Each structure stands twice: as structure tokens, then as C-alpha cells.
Amino acid sequence: MSKPYLSLSLDMDNQWSYMKIHGEEGWESYPSYLDIFVPHVLKVLDELNLKITFFIVGQDAAFDKNHKYLRDIAEAGHDIGNHSFVHETWLHLYSREEMTAEIDKAHNIIEKVTGKSPTGFRGPGFSWSPTLLEVLADKGYVYDASTLPTVIGPLARLYYFSTSNLSKEEKEDRKEIFGKFSDGFKKLKPYLWKTKKDQQLLEIPVTTMPVFRIPFHLSYLLYISNISSHLMILYLNIAIFLCKITKTQPSFLLHPLDLIGGDQITSLAFFPGMNISSDRKVLIFKKVMKKLGKHFTLTDMNGHVESILAKGNLKNVTVPKN
Ligand SMILES: [Zn+2]
């Protein structure tokens, strides 16, 4: 019997987007570490014979200095996804016009620079909204990968109602729709969004540990390994075990700083976790990949999408009104 699939994807957050999120001055000049990080990560992935999905930020593709590195990723055979243009974690507040412009702008420049046309999207900081899903479906995107099923669902509901001007009746009306929506949002396994235009969009959540709903992507594992590498392996073993008994094919998330240390990216040496050397991070990454590879067929998001759609039998979740 063939092993279940596990997709690997890396959110290509650049130096400036880390600085922007952390409110560090100087991000406005868009400092970049792609010249250091890209050759590094491509070498590591090549050593492991892995092909993954890189979710690229449009703004990075807009700079000539980055073109070579972004092209190198595509030419090495990796898959390319859309990670927005300006990488704002408040993407969910965008109007339809702003959302459409944002997705289009990122899509066009990423396609132009890498030669690959993204079919999937991940929101910055897991930001999402019904508008986002409809814009992606309108654009013919195959999947969204912006959800992290933890406790975000109830918060989203609270937020939705607190910002709305709905009458009591309208709220009653929406309660059910939103109930279905947030149920969908809590799902660990992939499912199909259905828009009001009857379009479909596959949702592939970033997998959290089944039952416990706690993240186990590489940043977390790295954090635990700082306490004890035995504990990290135990934690990972539990996650693998729970994925297997619940028949969950994981979507496993990576970030640049999971794979490179402050010894190479000196400008971010003061960031949490950057005291760990690149060598140690790569060693841990390889250990984790070896372990995951024993239980799963490691693939990119495209491979994951194909296997999900081939299997069929997906749950449908209605996208609510905005
Ligand atoms: Zn990001």
C-alpha cells in the first residue's frame, strides 16, 4: 500500500516582512535576504531530493534584484504559490476591489518573474475572509491554504458580528450560515468551499495536531527542540500517530527562519530563534523530514491537491455573505 501524502510549503517571508510584522524600523526600504536564503534552501532541498511549494510575496518579485533568485526556485522544479503582494496581516479587512487588485497584482508579477502561474494562495498571517475566497474562485484558483484550525473560528465569529450593522433578524439568519462557515473553518482535513456563484475552491488547512489542535509545523518543532530534542521527537511522533489514525494527510508549513540562523542572516540575528545556527536548523529539518518521509509521501501542494481531488468525497462548506 502506498503511503499517505504530506505536502510541504514554505511561506517566502522576506527580511522586510518580518520587520514589518514586528514593527521594526527600516522595512520600508524592503531589505532582502533572498540572495542568501534562496541558494541555501535550494541546496538543502536538493540534498533531500524534495520538491516543495514556495508561496511568494508579489512585492519581492517586483524588484529586479530578486528576479534571479525567484527564477532559480522555479527552475529547480519547485511549485509556486501566491502569498499576496504587500503581505499585510489585515488582508481580511480589504474591500472586494482592494482584494481583487491585491491578488491580481501579486499573481501577475509572480507569473512574469518565475514563469509559473500560481493556482493556490496563502494569506499573510493566516488572514482570510469570504471576500478572499470569492475573489480566488473568480480568478480560477484551485485552492486556498490560509487556514490554521486552532481556536481562530470562534474569534472570527465574534469579530464578524462585532463589526456588522446587522439587525437581530439578519444575525439569526447569518448565525446558521456562519455556523457552517466556522465549522468548516475548524476542519482539519481538506474540504470544498462553495461560493454563491456555485464555484468551488479547495481548502487545504495547515495541519495542526488532530484532537489537540495544536500546531506542529517546523517553527514549533524548532522551539521544542531548544528545550530538548527528545521532546521534539516525542511531540512529532504523537502528531504523526494522530494524523495516521484520523487519516489526515498533513499540510506541513515551513518558514525561511526555520532553516537559516543569525550566523548567515546577521541583520535578523536579534530575532527569536536566530541564535540557533544554520547548521543546527538544517540538521533538525533533515531529521524531521526523514521521520515524516518514513510515514508519508512528501510532495508539494500540487501533488497534494491532485491526490485529494482524485480521492473525491469532500465535504462542502458554504461561503457566507460578506
Ligand atoms: Zn507570510
Automatic annotation (TrEMBL):
<keyword id="KW-0472">Membrane</keyword>
<dbReference type="InterPro" id="IPR002509">
    <property type="entry name" value="NODB_dom"/>
</dbReference>
<dbReference type="Pfam" id="PF01522">
    <property type="entry name" value="Polysacc_deac_1"/>
</dbReference>
<feature type="transmembrane region" description="Helical">
    <location>
        <begin position="220"/>
        <end position="243"/>
    </location>
</feature>
<keyword id="KW-0812">Transmembrane</keyword>
<feature type="domain" description="NodB homology">
    <location>
        <begin position="17"/>
        <end position="151"/>
    </location>
</feature>
<dbReference type="InterPro" id="IPR011330">
    <property type="entry name" value="Glyco_hydro/deAcase_b/a-brl"/>
</dbReference>
<keyword id="KW-1133">Transmembrane helix</keyword>
<protein>
    <submittedName>
        <fullName>Polysaccharide deacetylase</fullName>
    </submittedName>
</protein>
